[in-house]
Porin family protein
Amino acid sequence: MRRSLIATTTALTMVGLTPAFAGSMSEPAAEPAPAPVAAPAPVSMGGDWTGFYAGGSLGYADATGTDGFDDSPTGLTYGGFAGYDYDFGNFVLGGELEISGFDVTEETLGLDVDSVTRLKVRAGYDAGNALPYLTAGGARLATSGAIDDSGNGVFYGAGLDYRVGGNMRVGGEVLKHRFDDYAGSGIDVDATTIGARVAFEF
């Protein structure tokens, strides 16, 4: 009788535990998905070239001409300039006014090249601290001696500005000039200038 009672009690205990074991065998709870990680925002490698600037230049000129302009005079150039650039992101567009004095004399005619004034359009690429650019525009040449006059022409070229401080840039520029029938003289004058430039931004 006692064995029967123990067996019955054990059986009832097992039956009572069955739901608990059944519950423990249920599918495991799903782990929450990790939160998405936002991709880092792209970092611009360009610099901001927007603003006014002004500075000075020192360089070298080589001129050639026609109709009695038999010499190829060379000499120093020097001057000042001021301009404004606008940075569109990778593309920089600007304008500049430059006045350059010339220490150049054409001996055959006795013609002194006094100055060249340029009105420039500049288009460049924002490469961070560097700004390579192309430039073109109108130029006005002034001479004395055999031709004491002035005349208009055109020019084109390329240059590079490099920012070396918070508001300072250095650079260089190569320009090709053309003055057809200069001052009505029948002489065509070509000139190539190479210049070093220093400017401050403000």
